[in-house]
Amino acid sequence: MTHVEQEIASQPQCWQRGVAQAGLAERLPRPGERVAVVGCGTSWFVAMAYARLREEAGLGETDAFAASEFPNRRRYDRVLVISRSGTTTEVLDVLAAVRGRTPSSGVFGDPRSPAATLVDEPVELPFADERSVVQTRFATTALAVLRAHLGEHLDPAVRDAAAALTAPLPLDPAALEQVTFLGRGWTVGLAHEAALKCREAAGFWAEAYPAMDYRHGPIAVAGPGRAVWAFGSVPAGLPEQVAATGATFVHNARDPMAELILAQRLAVDLAFRRGLDPDAPRHLTRSVILT
User: Fold this and answer.
1) pLDDT tops 90 at residue 222
2) DSSP label at 18?
3) Rounded to an integer, what distance in angstroms lies between the CA atom of residue 43 and that of residue 49?
4) Would you give the DSSP letter of residue 230?
């Protein structure tokens, strides 16, 4: 079993351990604060999901940014960074820029990392850190912690995650040519993350869009041998329109984070079928450190 397969399989336990941690309320954004959430790659997509959930919960205006695009002139009550390694150059640049000016919180996989020493209030998840280049359990555990902090009860999500580890894949990797992931609200970030897993692990053609925007152009690539996989709620009429193209439409009622586990498994299977090692994706490193 590869490292990434082991890490995918450990997610239900990691989520439970993460949400059980005490003291999170003192280190994460407080109700009413105007918050910017930043990350890179997968962590940015987690930031997108959390930002939408926090606003929908009525806890304060929340924006999500790729760390390289953080608007330094904009004022926030708090900056929350998400970073598995805590060594990514763009994340460190954001923390250096706001230090002494804006309170900062951070969710990290490595408590000894440079970012963990720069942030004012770290939340450390070393049990969810990974050996793989491709992120799986750290990202979902960070989001589980953040969802729990917003007041969500995640026992149903954990049960769905355990079931997703053994559920049949909804698509046949041997017959699949292309897949597009869709989301609405907070699951747009998860759709982007699912597509990224397929690109990273398998070099596979995968796209992601807000579900309502899919018909504004991207549906043109749908057809036989291709698939559209929706996370969360589905716009009326969309399944029928996708079916009319000859593409396969996938949608399930399980928690969207558990659905992401199936997409992670699909990405690994695609990698194997293409003769690739999902633990060593092409052109990627575990952390992007610029010199």
Assistant:
1) yes
2) H
3) 10
4) E
